[in-house]
Amino acid sequence: MTLVDQPLLLGKYSFQSRLFLGTGKYPSMESMVESLAMSGTQCVTVAVRRMQLGVPDGKTLLDYLPRDKYVLLPNTAGCFDADHAIRTARLGRELGIGDLVKLEVLGDPQTLLPDPIGTLEAAKVLVKEGFVVLCYTSDDPVLAKRLEDVGVTSVMPAGAPIGSGQGILNPNNLRIILERTKVPVIVDAGVGTASDVAIAFELGAHGVLLNTGVALAKDPVRMARAMKAAAEAGRDAFLAGRIGKKLYASASSPTSGIIAGE
Amino acid sequence: MNTMTVTVNGEPRELPVGSTVADLVALLGLKASQVAVERNREIVRRAEHASTLLVDGDRLEVVTFFGGG
User: Which residue among A22, A62, A163 places its CB closest to the CB of B65?
Assistant: First the structure.
């Protein structure tokens, strides 16, 4: 018997793997390449930054990311207002890798929490300009709905602050977002270890995006494998339909036919 | 040779008058396929690099991809 899963559809893009990985903070490019391969991801995020001028011509990140293996998802990380994020998204598109963007408009550098107003403004503009907008947001169900209304392709609620490794801090909010949002929901940010990924998928998340949890693990490649296994386990558990939680026990062995006591 | 001053990634840079975006990219030792260019907050499409003349005071951003999440 084969148990198949539907691919995750984001605009015209289709992914068998529901894990999305970032490309930042790895101890080396080799570690990144191996970790990405081990995770099974088909879509990786990249940042748009100023070319370092006067540095001897070397390999760029793109040389390590074969386009036949990975769809590149440029982000607008580091942008603290809508205008900045919009310009960064346009530059990412001009780099010639398609119309996907992971929109982030951040509130402040310490929390890196999304600025909800700037995020909504930028989302409107980018959707109008034809971008496939995957939108980083807080775990606010109302904002998720508003972002859906302006046409984003996916909402990406943070499980916890970026890079914090705290996991899914408010599973109830995530459940509400999942119940009330029609577009795919990709949990983005906060993943610290494999069980966080499993929990997100068990709750019904359509995808999980992570970076620091793998890149800064003591052994990134092994953690990448753990994340892959957790994604598959969590997703399968969700599709299989878990049992309800009850207060009292329910015997697994037959309650009749027990041999006589004294 | 007449020169002009433009700002590239926040740094002033002298260029010969009449330089294009393509000239700048070449001067920086970059491949056009590796970079995206914004001039005074507007994207300059790759196909227009060779025909886009720079003028004194232009502000340019020359970007590429880096690791990120």
Answer: A62
